Amino acid sequence: MAMEVTQVLLNAQSVDSTARKHAEENLKQFQEQNLPGFALALSGELANNDKPVDSRKLAGLILKNALDAKEHHRRLELTQRWLSLDGAVKAQVKGYLLQTLFSPVADARSTASQVIAKIASIELPHNQWPELISSLLTNIHQFQPHVKQATLDTLGFLCEEVAADVVDQDQVNKILTAVVQGMTAGEGAAEVRLAATRALHNALGFAQVNFSNDLERDYIMRVVCEATLSPDVKIRQAAFECLVSISSMYYEKLASYMQDIFSITAKAVREDEEPVALQAIELWSSICDEEIDILDDYGSDLTADSEVTCLYFIKQALPALVPMLLETLLKQEEDQDQDEGAWNLSMAGGTCLGLVARTVGDDIVPLVMPFIQENIDKPDWRRREAATYAFGSILEGPSPDKLTDIVKHALHFMLAALMKDQNNHVKDTTAWTLGRIFEFLHGSAMEAPVITRENCQQILTVLLHSMKDAPNVAEKACGALYFLAQGYEDAGAGSPLSPFFLDIVQALLAVTHREDAGESRLRTAAYETLNEVVRCSTDETALTVLQLVPLIMAELHKTLEAPEKQGELQGLLCGCLQVIIQKIGSAEPSKHAFLQYADQMMDLFLRVFVSRNATVHEEAMLAIGALAYANGAGFIKYLPGFYPYLEKGLQNFEEYQVCSITVGVVGDLCRALEDQILPFCDGIMTQILKDLSSSQLHRSVKPPMFSCFGDIALAIGESFEKYLIYAMPMLQSAADLTVHVPTGDEEMLEFTNQLRNGILEAYSGILQGFKSSAKAQLLIPYAPHILQYLDSLYMEKDMDEVVTKTAIGLLGDLADTLGRSVAALIGQSVAGKDFLNECLSSGDHLIQESADWAKLAVGRAISG
């Protein structure tokens, strides 16, 4: 195989599909059957300057993919396979890769850099390949520009792949020194400076110690700022990307550099090429994000002694920053509204202006209003559009008091512009701005409403008319109607939309049938808006909502009969039916009339499952869950036909969202059918236990799966007995793993709290399921571990509010179900005293309610 690897690699890129497929199978077989030979052959191919560029590049990419995978279980498996290879083989492969950094072929060097970094990410955490970094640093000091460039690329990829705590500080210092020196103007070759600048971007996460040292930080910042003035546009762009990351990672260190940062960003925004100017704006957006997060998290609690401080950079820069951003709004592109992926200076400036408004609130309004007033009715469409965009951008952040009068005055003007302006861009932005008005300044909480019964009809007339406009304008009009309807969610009987409900529904259905509804997400927007209009409707319109059912079912039937795949439309239609089911399927008198359609609807949903589209499966599953809830015990007649798809959903590891939603549907079925679900529980429990034991299961599915144990136990009561010997040890093992979370890992803490909540809900459901049963005593052996778990969670002090409420509720369930049998254990536990007392005095009323109930249950158990 090694002899013919070049030809196989070339065949794998052949236009002949048969030759390509055969070559891919050969390579896969080679990897599975002889990994050492495979790794040596590919790395040797990559290193050989006499081989074709295409075969060398593909050799490197295949080798890289043999070391990594998206799926966690597969990545672990590939890592283990590499680590278990013979040391001499690994050394030879790594030697080939390092040799390739000297190749005159850029593609080969670049691919080798990525593979070296991937191997480093596997080996360095295991204290292997300790000489790698010093070997790379030697290259930088001794060799010609293309070797320096490849080496800097490698260091950059390495910093991207490897966790910061794996590399010791001495090596970090040496990497940063080499990288920053490579960025300086004294380094003649532009490609070396670019590689060094990109490497610094990846290495910034390693530089905490260096950024805490004034001299080192000053030097790094000076070199980065100088690089923003390089004659090479790619270097300038990369330097600004560094500044964006620095502003996020080291916000608290920026104060002494802000004057220089403003000067170089202003110059870039006004004078530089678009890729550089976009990064300069992104820098200010990043600072806004930091300050918004700080103010959201701490707000009025911020003091000089706070652990986190807000340095109010945006507020200080406001008088100069806002005019700069307003200038960018005039730099629109002619076709930006038709291009879904468009991103240009005008859009970036408006986005940043919106973030500035969220950061400083009311202070932005007087700085932006003169620009709006000056340009809103100018003959030049660019000025009208820019003024409208500026207005829409500042509607989130300032207080309603500051904006209400302005918006009331502007509303009539905006509606007229949407009807009469001759320019598509202006209408597009006007419809978007109206949507922002309805999103942020409309609703039951508004003291001085902008939308009144008097102007509501005019607003609707304009929006429904605009839904016949060009697809991009119609899509924004749908979005505006979405938020208009949402604002009346709590209006109760007499919603101002009710008299126009039929007109709205007909207009939205007409949009879905437009020939150009596939453009600008128009069909999707129309269905999303229809769903929101239905969801926020009142009892007065229930009959009209009911009339929608056969119409939407007919549309879904049409897609199932169509020869071409219509997965996206099927998903939208299933989603629409789900909302309708939730709205009228559980309320009398519409429920009885609605259930006449249940048989046909269920038949359609089952036919949808035949398609292989994950999104459609998700939507159909959610709709079936809603139908089960609405139908209650009557849903049992559909379960034999639906069960095979339920089982398939639980087995669907690859499309884990489908799996997760299916678990939720099991919960819906348990609540609807109660003990009628018993005949199907063996299959469901077997699959869930199998899922939870699998290394392939996506971690996000685990919390609802554990919670599902509780749903099943609540439904079937003491019949859950036969599953205890499987479920309880699994819950105990999972509980032990969730007690401690590494400090500082916010993402891990969030997931662990979800997992804790699923485990606690499972225990609660099982305890409640056995309440008042003679078999409740079967749970007594598990009580010490449950209390120990509650004690440990309390001692860790990192539960969120949801977990705290579920945990204290579980204490109550334990006392309520097992009574005197656990009274002494509860009395000795931390949970029964300190945790309970803390929850009783909680400021969160939901936690307090659960604690009150737990106190009563514990009191009854003790007095027994």
UniProtKB/TrEMBL annotation:
GO biological process: protein import into nucleus
A GO molecular-function descriptor: small GTPase binding
Main subcellular location of this protein, as a coarse class: cytoplasm
Superkingdom in the source lineage: Eukaryota
Subcellular location: Cytoplasm
InterPro entries attached to this UniProt entry: ARM-like, ARM-type_fold, IMB1_TNPO1-like_TPR, Importin-beta_N, Importin_beta
Family, per entry: Belongs to the importin beta family. Importin beta-1 subfamily.
PANTHER family: IMPORTIN BETA
Name assigned to this protein: Importin N-terminal domain-containing protein
Organism: Spirodela intermedia
